[in-house]
Amino acid sequence: MVGAGPGDPELLTVKAARILRQAEVWLVDDLVGPDIHALAAPGARILKVGKRGGCRSTPQDFILRLMARHARQGRVVARVKGGDPFIFGRGGEEMQWLAARGIAAEAVGGITAGLAVGAALGLPLTHRGLSRGVALVTAHTMDDTRPDWRGLAASGLTVVCYMGMRDAGALARELREAGFAADIPVAVAHRVSCPGQRHIVTRLDRMAADIANSGLSSPSVIVIGPAVSLIDAARLGPDMMLAA
User: Fold this and answer.
1) What are the catalytic residues?
2) 180 vs 12, 113, 151, 185, CA distance in Å?
3) How confident is the model over 17-40, as pLDDT tens digits?
4) Around 64, how many Cα atoms within 13 Å sit in the side-chain half-sphere?
5) Which residue numbers delimit the Tetrapyrrole methylase domain (predicted)?
6) Residue 228 near residue 191 (C-beta atoms within 8 A)
């Protein structure tokens, strides 16, 4: 169970790269880029089993059966997931399923986009005096439940929201109703660390309109909190910061 990171092949861990070079079969998510595919050994089979919201996706049961079939045939199988398999990647579910059938599996962590976005944008997710922690949450669940937005609004944490692009207007309304300020800074980053990375910086009451105007879409993460206001300062050298 290999976490391939957010997209930049240089953010892949050494352990993940070693295992991918040894694997005979790859079961690969859509968000794993071609530069990472290039690590496959000659003769390795790369099977694309992508799952994307709003798009035609490979059924989860089929992915599980493929893993089991190839493993039982004695092959080294890499289930390759973008980011980290245990952060909104169903890694826990798949590991449990394999264990219940007596199939040995190992998890290899990766850098999730919600953490990589800090360095990618020069945005400190935690910062003394502005943010004492960070919360990774999803705006889309199987049962349509929501995170405790009210608790998060009062927490003082930077909130990184996955899967919030489907209806950014509804998300913004929920956050406002839960107590997030209209003018709280927001960054929206598309394809974090990839060659096509794009981002906008806005505020909550303008977030939906600015997303629509920019043409940003999934896969993106939405970062909400006062620390977003430092996104420009974090990219300046010390002389420029002093001059400002």
Assistant:
1) 29, 51, 163
2) 35, 23, 10, 10
3) 999 999 999 999 988 988 999 999
4) 15
5) 1-206
6) no
